[in-house]
Each structure stands twice: as structure tokens, then as C-alpha cells.
Amino acid sequence: MMREWDNSPELEVQHLTMRFGGLVAIGDLSFNVARKQITALIGPNGAGKTTVFNCITGFYKPTEGMLKLNHDNGKQFLLERMDDFRVNREAHVARTFQNIRLFSGMTVVENLMVAQHNTLMKASGYTIGALLGLGSYKRAAAEALDKAAYWLEKVNLIDRADDPAGDLSYGAQRRLEIARAMCTNPRLLCLDEPAAGLNPQESGELNKLLRTIRDEHDAAILLIEHDMSVVMGISDHIVVLDYGRKIADGTPAEVKIDPAVIRAYLGVEDEEDEELVEEAIVAVAPALAAAKKPVPIKQAPPKPKPTKKAVKGKAPAKKAGRK
Ligand SMILES: Nc1ncnc2c1ncn2[C@@H]1O[C@H](COP(=O)(O)OP(=O)(O)OP(=O)(O)O)[C@@H](O)[C@H]1O
Ligand SMILES: [Mg+2]
Asked: How far apart are CA 293 and CA 290, in angstroms?
């Protein structure tokens, strides 16, 4: 089936494999990230999500595979051949980290100015001229400050501009990280668990911010997130990983009723636990019915498990009806 994200995507991940010694952290992974969409990359702990980001952003050299970034002006970048510095500066891919990385001793606004260091250095002509009042540098510095102020407004931190970043609450630091990434004008923004540690109000604000970035700044967003209220609430497209392999790829409505996904999240290992899967399928049955789609259990990727048949035979919608 042709999907929105397969039609001139911003990022194409093709047959990506990353091995660490004997461990296959990512195995033959392919998916697309559409422009102007929020794509979530989800999966249990250790599934390989952060490793995917590290490959995309040039922190790791993939063992195999291609990471093709397509700007809407026709420019293409093979990210697997670029280091992290060029991925950010030339390909315009920005990221935030699972563990916040800010300059905690610098002020909030200084953190945003440092992010724009490359633009400023270029304008300075890499000379002392900048200090002597070179016009182009002054202009670039003013623009950088404007951009910092714009994003501080957006993330609701303008009142904290001159405070040390380390003094901000956890949630505020997460927002500052996103502002910092946005100051580099990304075409692709990769966020590694931005809702981790946020309270419900903060994660509601985060949802709003990410929608704004998608709708008003045309950036493609690739989001790793465990908080399902965020994932299901704002994603246009969800890719599910388990043990480094893709087990599902679709809309939120499709993915949340996919038996392979339910199985992965419950950590079903043996036959007895199939009971658990059945219970979970019953639990999602109302969503299924609401979707008014053919019973999706038949669309599940075939697994070489003999027990699969037992599950397959039971239509979740029917079971729900009996309850
Ligand atoms: N640099 C590395 N060297 C060796 N093994 C690594 C390295 N980075 C990641 N791994 C391994 O690769 C696997 C995937 O890790 P990764 O951090 O990508 O998972 P994740 O999906 O982000 O998990 P979490 O949800 O816990 O953040 C894990 O088994 C991890 O131990
Ligand atoms: Mg991770």
C-alpha cells in the first residue's frame, strides 16, 4: 500500500544494520520519515531506538545500510557518510538527547547563541574583524539573538533568558534543548524521549510545541517516546522496533491494535503468555470497533510461532462482543 510517508519523504532509512561486536542492535531496518509529519519510533527498552538516532545524526557509522535525507529543494545527503558536525550544519538535522545535554553554567540565551556559533563564525569571516565591528557579523549576531528570543517565546522560557540553564526545572531544560535544536534551522528534528520526566501539564505543552514545529516550521519530526499519551496524541506515523527489528509501521490507529506490538510490549516469550496477548487484544477491541476496519489481526506479519494460530483464530471484535 502506498502511504503518505513513502511519497517523497524527508528521510529514507534503508536496510540499516548496526552491530556492536556480536550484538545486532539494529537489523535490516527500513522506514521513511515524511516532511511535515511527526513520526514516532517506539519499542521496548533496548530495542535500538537511540542507536537509530546515533546513526542518523552521525554519532555512529552504521555497519550497513543507507540513510538518505532529501531536502525539498532537491538536495540529497547520504548521512551515513557524514560526521555529526556536517549532519547538523549541512544536512540540517538536529537532535536532543535522552540524557539532557546543555551547558548548565551558561545562561539560557547563551545556550541558544552557542548553537548558532557556526553561522556567527561564518559571518565573522573567522577573523578578528568581528570584534572590530564588522557589519556582517553584527547583523548575524542580531539575527541569532532574534532567533533565540523567538524560540524562547515559543518554549515559554523568555523570562528565564538570563538564568543559568542548570537552574531550570527538568521540564524547562527539556524545552530549552528543543529550542536549541530549532535555532539551527533543522529540516529533520530528532527528539529522544522529550516527555521523559514531564508532568501531565508539561507533556500537554510539549504536544502543542511539537505540533507548532510541524505545522509552522515545516520540519519533519522523528520522535522517540515511551509516553503513549504523547505518541498516540501527536504522531502521524509510528514505526515499532523490537530487538532491533521493525515489527510494525503505520498510523497510530493501526499500530495500537497490532498484535505483534501488543506482544512486544507485554514481553510475551512462551506459549502460556499467549493468554496475556488475548487479554490485551480484548482490551483494545473497543478501539478496533471504533476504527470500523477489517479485523487487523489478519494483517499481522507472520511469525514462525505455532501458537500464533491459536491467537489468530480469535477475532478480537467478537470477543469484545461477548464480554
Ligand atoms: N555503543 C554501544 N556499544 C555496545 N552496545 C550498545 C551501544 N549502544 C547501544 N548498544 C546496545 O544496543 C542495544 C540498543 O540500545 P539503544 O540504546 O539503542 O536502545 P533504546 O531502544 O534506545 O532503549 P531505551 O528505551 O532504554 O532508551 C542495547 O542492547 C544496547 O546495550
Ligand atoms: Mg534510548
From this structure: 8
Q: Residue 241 CA: which ligand is closest? A: 1
Ligand at shortest distance from the CA of 51: 1
Separation of alpha carbons 323 and 321, rounded Å: 5
Q: State how far the Cα of 254 lies from the Cα of 280, in Å rounded to an integer.
A: 15
Rg (CA), the chain: 22
Cβ atoms of 3 and 190 within 8 Å: the answer is no
pTM recorded for the entire structure: 0.81
Per-residue pLDDT tens over the stretch 85-135: 999 999 999 999 988 889 989 999 999 998 887 676 666 666 666 666 667
Residue type for position 243: Y
Q: Which atom of ligand 1 is nearest to the CA of 51?
A: 18
Measure the CA–CA gap between 237 and 28, rounded to whole angstroms: 20
Nearest Cα to 251, choosing from 279, 291, 283? Answer: 291
pLDDT digits (tens, 9 = 90+) for 188-234: 999 999 999 899 899 899 999 999 999 999 899 999 998 888 898 99
C-alpha span between 181 and 195 (Å, rounded): 16
Identify whether the C-beta of residue 4 lies closer than 8 Å to the C-beta of residue 65.
no
Alpha-carbon dihedral angle through residues 280, 283, 287, 293, given to the nearest 10 degrees: 60
